[in-house]
Amino acid sequence: MHPMLRFVLISTALASTALAQTRGLVPEDYFRFQFVSDPKLSPDGKQVAFTRSVIDKEKNRRVSSIWLVPTDGGAPPRQITASGYSSNSPRWSPDGKQLAFLSTRDGARAQIQLLRFDGGEARQLTKIPNGASNIQWSPDGKRFVFLSRTGPSDRAAKKTTSDVKHYKNARYKFNDSGWFDDKRSHLWIADAVTGEARQLTDGDDWNDLDPQWSPDAKEIAFVSDRTGKEFDFGRNTDIWVIPAEGGALRKISTSSEPDNTPRWSPNGSSIAYIESTDETIGISWKLASCCAPPRTLAPNLDFAVGDPQFDGENDIYFSTQAKGETLVYKLDVGTGLPTRVTPSNKHCRDYSARGANFVAVCSDFEHFDELYTRTASGPWRPLTSFNNEMWKSLELASVERVPYRASDGWDVEGFLVKPLGWQAGKKYPMILSIHGGPASMYGTEFNHEFQGYAARGWAVFYVNPRGSSGYGVKFQRGVDKNWGGGAYTDIMTGVEAVLSKNPWIDRTRLGVTGGSYGGFMTNWITSHTNIFAAAATLRCISNFISDEGTRDAAFGHDRDFGGDLFQNFDLYWEFSPLKHAKNVKTPTLVMHSEQDLRTPLEQGEQWFRALRHFGVTAEIVIFPRENHNLTRTGEPAHLVESLNWQQYWFRRFLDGDERAKRPTE
Questions:
Q1: Residue of higher predicted confidence among 498 and 120
Q2: Inter-residue contact 608 to 577 (CB < 8 Å)
């Protein structure tokens, strides 16, 4: 070989290696994510309309647009709505010639927009003062049903100049929507050509939700608590049906528990809906016909279900959480037997089914959400790859399941993430993470926070203790009258199991963190053991006594505590971490949102001040303008900064890095 030629080949190989270098995920990578949601198959099943959202870092907000992609993958996805404003909720007309969607292009409230596929720009159809949501075409394509908010202030002849808040009912705020005004959600009908709209339902003492057309377009089913107690302590939502032209209502459901998500069978003879047998568990399917009492479907199904969709008269798709995965099943109405539809080791949600075609948004621990599709007999394949370019520059950690036996014999499952660059013979810190709820579930879905921890050289152990969803009703109700008991021992048993099987984890450098119920459990753990070197508690509960009367769902823990605060005061105080704050030695970072109405700011303040009172190293970080959903839907800059605050704290106390800087420095 010629010497010069050999030199060139070596140099090229070295350059290729340099270009191929990757790094671990950092909090700021969140700004690069592209989010896929709400796919809807066209009537012929050949195309999918969906929403893609990106982060406008300069404006610190999310921007969404509508995209279209053929289900055969013959062409790449293309954007069909104009840039410059957000558009979402794509809905196909029954003939497939138009697409309706919601947009704030007028700069105010979201309105229904119409886009024809035979050419032309989208046009605004409605001009509803308080905007539109939950739009649905009538089966004949002539009208829309949607939700909008109305109330006494719309009818008042003379408006007051006072800006005080005045309430007559106990429920006057909600975390996602803030402090209530006097407006209520009701059904509206709009002409699909002229946009002329009229209000269909009314009432000042309830909200009407989830409107669904009957197949003949003559009736609309919806959800409402019309007991008059919704804004005090009521929770008895029912399924109602109203003529599309207006008139008398008829009630379909029969239970005193919450009923929701009505869906008509294709021939209109029945309505399937979900009857909740517990405040947080919807497991009992009901099928109501016009002339017979409701009957239960799938009586042996032991998981919470949601998002039902009929596939012909005899099958119903539904989503559920099961053993660390979010998946979709198809239920045979006759036999009550469910069959899994979505693939293994994927978290799939936001699905759409039409005949042999099925699409869903799926992720796994090493891949963020993308749109996947399959036919009845074909393999699963991706339809979008928005985030693939980003993955080329990143090295991502993998996750392994950790099943173990609780101290009292219950089967529990956790998950372990090794640090990136793990090497045998080295010792590594580990962070324990606890999810919210407690009726929630960790699994193998993509997790930005955990990937960031692994990139820093920390192992992550996260667990589904009793109280978690996805492992059956008995397991989920395992926190009954025992919030800090069995779940705590489940978690600590799991920690010991992981430590014993993985001697490379440094027992002297353990961290613990969690949000909401996970924040409560973080506080409970550090007040009952001192094995953790650092803790970061987010949107926590520290004092049930004050929380019960200040949170949005007042006295909302009665089912877990065997009664309300006034019936079981001592139990509420016993399971309040604040009672045990004198035992805490763990350096703790308290993070809370200023506008949190689910676990109000005072919960974090009380915990922080108690720790300082007892001489514990502690700091508190308060995020302005944010509510309980900071780490899900908060301002992008705040969301990223919250991750950086956690990493700062763990660098300081797990890595012993005295140079670790606060995000504000």
A1: 498
A2: no
Adjacent-strand bridge partners of 243? 219
Nearest alpha carbon to residue 522 among 626, 436, 404? 436
Contact by Cβ (8 Å): 391, 20: no
Q: Cβ distance 422 to 500 under 8 Å?
A: no
d(CA 547, CA 58): 37
Cα dist. 471→325, 410, 464, 465, 477 in Å?
Answer: 11, 11, 9, 10, 10
Q: Which pLDDT value is given to residue 334?
A: 83
pLDDT, tens digit (0-9, with 9 covering 90-100), for 8-23: 333 333 333 334 578 9
Going through 394-471 in order, the beta strands assigned E by DSSP cover 399-405, 411-417, 428-434, 459-464
What phi and psi, each to the nearest 5 degrees, are found at residue 168?
-115, -15
**Helices 517-526/486-501 angle, 10° precision:** 70
Whole-angstrom distance, CA of residue 411 vs CA of residue 484: 18
pTM of full prediction above 0.85: yes
The structure tokens listed for 459 are 């192992």
Tokens of 251: 């009630």
* 8 A C-beta contact, residue 350 and residue 326: no
pLDDT given at position 5: 31
CB 645 within 8 A of CB 663: yes
Q: Which residues in 290-382 belong to E strands, given as ranges?
A: 295-297, 305-311, 315-322, 325-332, 338-340, 347-354, 357-364, 367-374, 381-382
